[in-house]
Specification:
By secondary structure, the chain is α+β, with helices and mostly antiparallel strands. 60% of the residues lie in helices and 7% in strands. It folds into four domains: 1-34 and 174-340, Up-down Bundle (Multidrug efflux transporter AcrB transmembrane fold), CATH 1.20.1640; 66-167, 2-Layer Sandwich (Alpha-Beta Plaits); 342-382 and 542-708, Multidrug efflux transporter AcrB transmembrane fold; 417-511, Alpha-Beta Plaits. The strands form three sheets. Strands 6, 7, 8, 9 and 10 form a five-stranded antiparallel sheet that branches. It is elongated.
């Protein structure tokens, strides 16, 4: 099927290119016309924070959306001074006029007195929105903030915190993308040896990425797309897009060097390496889509958006790339900068020596790999999931500056108040109702609580709420402990014997619920991803042993990457090297996504390596020779592909968002470990030790499985033997480095 598809794309190369260009430009144009509409709302069915939001949804709908502070600071004097007070009042009035704002609490009024610092140099407008803050576009949020211009014109420092501030404080990713692309260009040029061959994978990946981001931007208007989803899609789409094209172009160049006709070489490359790309992309997509089993809307949507990036990258590699290869024709060798090693040199080069050393000492090679992976895994056992810490944002962002001002003049807990929502079975006559008074007293006297706000009650007397301010910052463990304590003992005690129910809500509590839910769902997620990938690999290689090996190997590399992530971010080791001032919490959904992404990506290298080994098995070589030959054939390409991934992922460490840094570090480290320690050391060693058992499958299962061949080994057998890789002689003489 892939062979016929490639032949069509070669024949209609200009039509295929035109279709891709037109579709990409049309999608980009429409999406930009619609604008960005990401949404960070947390919907967590069954959690305490969701019950709090549902309780307030009818009587206090705006309070369920929380508040965002616009901080006003006078470097000299007081906000109550005549030169500032008028500007503060004007700013409050102007912000209140925005159609998305429900109310604004002015620190210079009696009702907002608590929002004015003791020295009166700092205050904040407490902005309550009519809509969930996550549903605002960046432009909407900036429009609200800009309405505080009178305060800025009067000489006050104006900074915005909360959800509004975070919405406009997302660092751009353009520099990271550019660094990743430049690194990929260098690696591809050295790998292929020609500039023209290098350009083709880059063009394919860029067109696919532009299409992906346009689709995601458009979906944001009909679905809840998280703010971080486009960044994740960029990281994954760019990485896999270049890698998939690399595999196919490499096979095409091998075909040309073997004397194949141009069209035949392109078609065979798509039918062989393209098959590996199809299966590898399938494993990544399955892993990402299976995030839906967690039952968390935010996580499900992020997985789907990242899955779209992979699907588009695969389609581009199987259609657009063959067309570009046909257009380039024999000019693919133009602008040569180096001559890649011949097959003969490769069979005697660096990777050949490495492969023979592993084959000669498989036990030592396996133990050496474990000696690297196991120590790196140890920090994983102290991993604690948390929430995004604004205190770790760059000081160039308004969200961080607002956070610092509030922490200094009001206390860190004001940055993330806890919302106590109360549902009364029998109406209360007012805020002095004994049930409400007891609840507020018990909460305010709890260790770790700095203060509580006055209780607000609706006209029916059946719904009430008040805010609780922690003594600690919202991302600190002490605040998480406070949430658990309030829910476990304080609130149930105040409710006892009364016709009343209370819940702890607000964004701080919601992120704690998210972490708890992810922790409980992670084991199920791991089982589902492994099971689905196991089935796919059985179909690909018709063996039970290799899929089982792959599952264990992937768990080892992912566990080690989790350990490194814990050490750098949770422990704070080497955090200064990535632009952080110390430890920061690991955002709860990062490990979950890392697992899905990494398990899929590691399958890429597994499929490519094992499919090369399988070719030599079908050619009649013994197990050891097949492993050595497959490693020699694939190691250089896998290394190049991994380096591209590492630079693409690693470049996002430059992003100012700590969450994006965590994805960048975690994914880059995992790819390094998987492509080197696991694929080029542990897997070959284990396959050599297992011998013929590698390909064992029960006869009954072999009969019922459909006949699928990932790289088409044997499909072209006999038609052009020169196109097939020659086995590496067991006693190959060491020669030039590859």
């Amino acid at each position: 099927m892939l062979y016929r598809l490639a032949r069509f794309c070669v024949r209609q190369r200009f039509l295929v290119l035109a279709v891709w260009v037109v579709v990409a430009f049309a999608l980009v144009a429409v999406s930009h016309q619609l604008g960005d509409n990401t949404n960070d709302n947390l919907s967590l069915p069954g959690t305490d924070s969701q019950k709090a939001a549902d309780t307030l949804a009818k009587s206090f709908p705006s309070q369920a959306n929380g508040t965002s502070p616009i901080v006003l600071h006078a470097s000299s004097g007081k906000l109550t001074d005549s030169k500032y007070s008028g500007a503060v009042n004007d700013a409050a009035a102007d912000v209140a006029k925005d159609p998305n704002v429900a109310s604004v609490l002015n620190p210079l009024t009696p009702q907002g007195a608590s929002a004015l610092s003791q020295d009166q140099s700092t205050g904040y407008l407490s902005v309550t929105l009519k809509v969930p803050p996550g549903s605002l576009s960046v432009g909407d949020a900036q429009a609200i903030i800009d309405r505080a211009q009178p305060a800025k014109a009067a000489g006050l420092q104006v900074e915005t915190g909360g959800q509004l501030g975070q919405k406009v404080s997302k660092p751009s990713t353009e520099s990271s993308e550019l660094i990743g692309i430049i690194a990929a260009m260098v690696i591809l040029t050295l790998t292929f040896g020609t500039v023209v061959a290098m350009v083709l994978p880059i063009l394919t990946a860029i067109v696919a990425l532009a299409t992906t981001l346009a689709i995601i931007r458009m979906l944001g208007h009909v679905a809840t797309v998280p703010t971080v989803a486009p960044t994740l899609a960029t990281m994954i789409g760019l990485g896999v897009g270049i890698d998939y094209a690399l595999f196919i172009v490499t096979r095409h160049l091998r075909g040309l060097s073997a004397g194949l006709d141009l069209r035949e070489s392109i078609a065979r490359a798509s039918a062989t390496s393209g098959g590996a790309v199809f299966f590898a992309g399938g494993t990544v997509t399955i892993a990402l889509v299976s995030l839906a089993v967690a039952g968390i809307p935010l996580v499900t949507t992020m997985g789907l958006m990242a899955g779209i990036a992979v699907v588009v990258a695969v389609i581009a590699a199987l259609t657009l790339l063959p067309a570009l290869l046909a257009i380039a024709g024999t000019h693919i060798d133009s602008l040569r900068v180096r001559t890649p090693p011949t097959d003969e040199q490769a069979r005697r080069g660096l990777w050949a020596r490495w492969a023979h050393d592993v084959a000669a000492r498989p036990v030592i090679a396996g133990l050496a790999a474990l000696a690297i992976l196991i120590p790196l895994t140890i920090p994983l056992f102290s991993l604690t999931l948390g929430q995004q810490d604004v205190a770790a944002f760059s000081t160039s962002t308004t969200a961080r500056r607002a956070y610092d001002l509030i922490s200094k003049y009001f206390g860190p807990g004001v940055n993330g108040p806890l919302l106590i929502a109360v549902s009364l079975g029998s109406p209360a006559q007012g805020t002095s109702d004994p049930r409400l008074a007891t609840l507020q007293k018990d909460v305010s006297s709890t260790s770790g609580v700095a203060s509580v706000t006055p209780t607000q009650i609706d006209q029916a007397g059946t719904t009430a709420y008040f805010n609780t301010i922690s003594k600690n910052g919202p991302a600190e463990q002490a605040t998480t402990d406070l949430v658990h304590k309030l829910r476990a003992s304080v609130i149930p005690g105040a409710e006892k014997g009364t016709n009343m129910r209370a819940y702890v809500g607000g964004m701080t509590a919601a992120y704690d619920d998210l972490a708890s839910k992810i922790s409980s769902k992670l084991p199920l997620q791991i089982v589902v991803v492994i099971a689905l990938s196991f089935v796919l690999l059985i179909l690909a290689f018709r063996t039970l042993v290799i899929p089982a090996q792959a599952a264990v190997m992937n768990l080892l590399s992912i566990g080690a990457s989790y350990g490194v992530l814990t050490a750098i971010f949770q422990y704070g080791w080497l955090s200064g090297l990535i632009g952080l001032s110390g430890p920061v919490p690991i955002v709860s959904y990062v490990p979950l996504f890392m697992f899905a992404i990494l398990f899929g990506l590691s399958m890429d290298y597994e499929v490519f390596l094992v499919s090369q080994i399988e070719e030599h098995v079908h050619a009649g070589e013994d197990n050891t020779s097949s492993v050595v030959s497959g490693l020699v054939t694939s190691a250089r390409v896998i290394t190049a592909a991994a380096l591209i991934m590492v630079f693409v992922f690693g470049s996002f460490v430059l992003n100012g968002d700590p969450t994006v840094k965590q994805f960048g570090v975690g994914l880059a480290v995992a790819v390094i470990l998987d492509a080197t320690v696991v694929r080029c050391l542990l897997v070959p060693a284990l396959m050599i030790l297992m011998g013929r058992i590698n390909w064992w499958i029960p006869r009954w299962l072999d009969r019922v499985l459909p006949r699928i061949n990932v790289e088409g080994a044997g499909y072209f057998a006999g038609s052009s033997p020169a196109a097939e890789p020659e086995p590496v002689p067991a006693g190959a003489v060491h020669g030039p480095e590859s």
